[in-house]
Amino acid sequence: MAGTALAGVLADDLVPQVTLRVPPPMEIDLELVVSSTGAQLRYGEQLVAGAVPVPADFLADATIDPVSFEEARRAEAGYRGLTKHPFPSCFVCGLENPRGLQLKPGPVGDGRTACTWTPATDLASDGLVDPVFLWAALDCPSGWAIDLEGRPSVLGQLTACVDAQPQPGEECVVMGQLRELNGRKTLTASTLYDSDGRVLARARATWIQVDPALFN
Q1: Which domain of life is it from (predicted)?
Q2: 63: closest CA among 189, 215, 209?
Q3: Is the pLDDT of residue 117 over 90?
Q4: Structural domains in the chain?
């Protein structure tokens, strides 16, 4: 939310970089404060997330080679969240959340994941899918490129750019890729493609390894 709000006031050569400070509380109204220098999402005195502008070339290498819609569909059979999911109610990839996107990114080789996404009509604003859901779709597909069982991780930072918005009902493909392991940090990238193979959105993410007991 902070990233998409900030995107509306940035120059063309800047993109939002969002850093999560604490796990966002659910089913609670949060305060969003936006300025030309950044945005903050707050719960009372608690800073939940902050967004700042970074140069657009930060995402120059974020585009991942795609697979076809059919190959992405086949990859979903290998989605590890089908049998063991650390956060089954996740809005993006949790299969126990009927209101979520229910993406199922499975491996396709070269450290990549792929899944399909056909946005529902209720995700649209002015006839096109709202950018907030494009940001969401870029999240978990790269997270599942990590060995989440051996290296349990949560999203720490996401930098994204929306190039175009799909129409509801359009058959899209979301790609994720593992890029680097650095201590407790894992660096990944993700790309959203439309039905014609055009890049809709790109992102780079930093995931932080955590102790699963903290989330039980």
Answers
A1: Bacteria
A2: 189
A3: yes
A4: 1-58 (no CATH), 61-215 (3.10.129.10)
